[in-house]
Amino acid sequence: PPVAPLTATTATATTTAVTNATATAAQLAAVPGGARYGAIYLAPAPATGLGLSAGQADREAAHRIAGQRCIGGQSTLCRLALEFHDRCGAVAHGLTPRGLFLTDSPSTFSVMAAAAGAGATQDLAERDAMAHCRQIFRGTCRVARSLCDG
């Protein structure tokens, strides 16, 4: 199962709710030796910035890589959304069309929400991200990106 996130982020176009949950020493000690770490960082909507890392031998490296990937997407407001180990990670965006059609082109939609998920497989991680997205956004949710260890 995923490690309890240090921070959970739910981003919407009008508000950003950030709940801090500090991982206890017992939670961190529960992570088995040799674990592969992953992290997901998200920019608040309507920004599309996101950063994923998975399969890192070092927890700090997982955070650094995910944070840099998110910031590399030209957003400096990236925040930790999920930390996990020995899992796949995924991000789903809640979208509204800018015109008549919603396509894969970012010019046809606005990101209204972003949600992170993790699972033992890529499919399960994507399902988890989609489920979280549907909890916070009533419109169209789509998987924006997913990444697995290895």
Can you walk through the features of this model?
- The protein is an alpha+beta fold and 150 residues long.
- Helices cover 23% and strands 40% of the residues.
- The chain is built from 3 helices and 8 strands, in the order E-E-H-E-E-H-E-E-E-H-E.
- It has a 5-stranded antiparallel sheet. It has a 3-stranded antiparallel sheet with strand order 4-3-5.
- Strand 3 and strand 4 form a beta hairpin.
- The radius of gyration is 15 Å and the shape is globular.
- The N terminus is likely disordered.
Main beta-sheet strand count, sense and barrel state? 5 strands, antiparallel
Number of helices, counting only DSSP H or I runs of 4 residues or more: 3
Global geometry: globular
Q: What portion of the residues fall into strands of 2 or more residues?
A: 35-45%
The helix/strand order is EEHEEHEEEHE
Fraction of residues in H or I helices? 10-25%
Low-confidence stretches: 1-30
Structural class: alpha+beta
- Write down how many β-strands occur, each being a DSSP E stretch of 2 or more residues: 8
- Our measurement of the CA-to-CA distance between the termini, rounded to an integer number of angstroms, reads 18 Å
Strand line-up across the major sheet? 2-1-7-6-8
Radius of gyration: 15 Å
What integer is the average pLDDT?
A: 78
